[in-house]
Amino acid sequence: xxxxxxxxxxxxxxxxxxxxxxxxxxxxxxxxxxxxxxxxxxxxxxxxxxxxxxxxxxxxxxxxxxxxxxxxxxxxxxxxxxxxxxxxxxxxxxxxxxxxxxxxxxxxxxxxxxxxxxxxxxxxxxxxxxxxxxxxxxxxxxxxxxxxxxxxxxxxxxxxxxxxxxxxxxxxxxxxxxxxxxxxxxxxxxxxxxxxxxxxxxxxxxxxxxxxxxxxxxxxxxx
Length: 223
Fold this sequence. Notes:
The protein is an alpha+beta fold. It has one domain. It has helices at about 30-35, 45-50, 95-100, 115-120, 150-155, 165-175; strands at about 1-5, 10-15, 20-25, 40-45, 65-70, 75-80, 85-90, 105-110, 130-135, 135-140, 145, 180-185, 190-200, 205-210, 220. A hairpin with a 5-residue loop joins strand 5 (about 65-70) and strand 6. About 20% of the residues are buried.
């Protein structure tokens, strides 16, 4: 991003310092395929929920309960889920022995600029129109309490979930897809950094894409 103090001054440059993230792989051939032609598998919540190993999968992914007190002091809540229209890629910010063991990792793709990487991947996914990236949030529960967030709670209490056809969209403006980054404390050591691509269709299985444009942002790491 370049800008000027005035028309007489030289341009200044401002950048965001990006930390690398690591895509763990359990077979070196997957990494070699990626660096040959950009082949990469992008997963989804449906897969995460069905992995038998609880350190890799999580059957409650995308589920949450949001609640807050109404004007009478009664606690009102609703259980919901989201992410059924999203592709997701899980990475880590730290290559520890414990996280490598969790995923039986033999190697990793080091992604030096996650944002550029994410934008290019978006172009390869069918009907993708929006993306998120960020650190996962760890907690001892999937319940989101709004008792201390007055404005959010007012907005939540005003939604007519029975009759308003736009109730889901209104809820989304409050939660801001928080639940898609929410993980239980038992996963905290994995230090997950998640990339999410939303599409206009339901996503219930992984997709293998080829995106050679992102290879330049990446490096090979062997364990």
